[in-house]
Amino acid sequence: MHDPIGNWPRTTAIDRPTRLLMALVRGGEALEDATKALQVLGPAETQALIQLLHQQRVAPWVGFQFEQAGFGNRLPDTLRQMLGRATARAKRHTLRQRLALLHTVRCLGKHGIEAVALKGAQLACQHYPQPWLRPMRDLDLLLPEEQISRAFGLLEAEGFQVKGATVRRPDDPLMWRVNDFSLWHPSGEFIELHRTLWFRPGESLCGDFSLAPDFWQQERTYRQPPDHEGIVYLQPSYLTLHCLVHHLLRQDMNMGPLGLVDLQLLAAAGHIDDPELAEAAERFGCAPLLTTAQEILTGWQHTRWLTEADVPSWVLPLLMGRELKLLLYLDDRSVRSHARQWLTIQARGGRWSGPAPSPGLDR
Question: Across the strands, what pairs with 193?
């Protein structure tokens, strides 16, 4: 299944449909410009745009933007019908996911196992205008590490099924380095149980606040109290920090249009500029990511035809300071590759010894 956050440059080219997509997702003045362009778009480019909307799973969001702006009657019939069908599907799927999330959390809760709903589920319910506007490939739950083996077995007993031909079980000694374990809910929804938040080399440059000694205590420093249905989410500052690390480090600044909407809505809620977030980012070594997010949003809000190809020119000089500037190469692919190498070296405790062609580890 296509991941709407990752692999953005690999699935798109910087052509007119791509530029239109970014303008439609952003909304505001860019939406009016894009609507005018849609009226003269040829059949082939219209189909290319529809394919992008499907691939990136932003059709419901774009349809909502048109509805809010009152531009729906100005759309080509093919596009308007596609947006309507995508919205109806999204509403049905979101309801199924919500019921699966409630069932999973309650199954765990009756056995005394706490769970925190991560990222997409929280963004959908607390930050998007309607939950069905934020698509989710799966439902991510963070569990106490010492409880994850027991939780896995209990859910199997409740009818959940292990995903994939190669079974990964948390009680298998060979799986001690695996961070997440996948199950199919009886309804067919995909559930991932996480024992930590960060598990990739780039991510590990930031402190994992889920491993803080007081994370699972009752003082609720990191977590919100259960909502009216019993779901626990992260406090806003820590949700934002989690999204920054996921979108900017795990996805190599390669987050695509949906990730930009996430950041835009978090900023609109005041979380990007929240002093609590700045304090948490400093505490866990993520302060450069906060600066990066602010720069991305500035460009996103002031560039009518912004495309993802513009992002590396802002992000890489800002992300980790002077050393990373040695890695600026002429094409984006080379920049991403070398940035990933640099992050990996840092995560392993070394330092960058030269920009090219073969970076080494200086101990």
Answer: 141, 181
